Amino acid sequence: MKNNKAILTEGNVGNLIIKLTLPMIIGMMGFVVFNLVDTFYITRLGVNQTAALTFTFPVVLIVNNIALGLGLGTASVISRAVGEGDEKKVKELSTDSLLLAVLVVFICMIIGLNTIEPVFKLLGASTDTMIYIQKYMKIWYLGSSFVVVPIVGNNIIRALGDTKTPALIMLVSATTNLILDPFLIFGIGPFPKMGIAGAAIATVLARMISFLFALYILIKRDRIITIKLKKVSKIINAWKEILYIGIPSMITRMILPLANGIVTNIVSTYGLFAVAGYGIATRIEFFLLMIVRAMAAIIIPFVGQNYGAGKRNRVIESMKFCEKISLSLGVFTYFIMILFSKYVAFIFTSETEIVNIIVLYLMIVPLGYGLHGIFLTNTSILNAINKPIHASILTFFQIFIIYIPLVKILISTFYQFTADKISVLN
Question: Cα–Cα distance between 166 and 153 in angstroms, integer?
Answer without folding.
Answer: 9
